Amino acid sequence: MATANVTIRMDAELKAAMEELCRDLGMNMTTAFTIFAKKATGENRIPFEVSRPDPFYSESNLRNLRDAKSALDAGEGVERNLIEA
Fold it and tell me: What is the maximum alpha-carbon separation in the chain?
């Protein structure tokens, strides 16, 4: 079987952590990425969930929620009731 070189760029700290993990698992990074490639191509998908974070928990929304709670706690809110349709 012919082999091909693949170059991957990543943060140096992430690389060091990955090398340590691979070493602890008794393999090198080439073996780890080969396992990933075989699993991904065998399943025809990324073999783990890849998603964007829920925007509700973004720092800006959490800041808005804290500000709104502070305003309510200070008596600056307006009470509203649900209207039945």
Answer: 73
Residue 40, Cα to own-chain centre: how many angstroms? 18
Of 36, 8, 69, 15, nearest in space to 77 by CA = 69
The first and second tokens of residue 67, run together, are 């500000």
Indicate the pTM of the whole model: 0.59
pLDDT in tens, 14-29: 999 999 999 999 999 9
pLDDT at residue 84 is higher than 80: no
Distances (CA, A) of 72 to 35, 59, 67, 77, 79: 53, 20, 9, 5, 10
State how far the Cα of 79 lies from the Cα of 53, in Å rounded to an integer.
32
CB within 8 Å of 47: residues ≥ 6 apart = 36, 39, 40
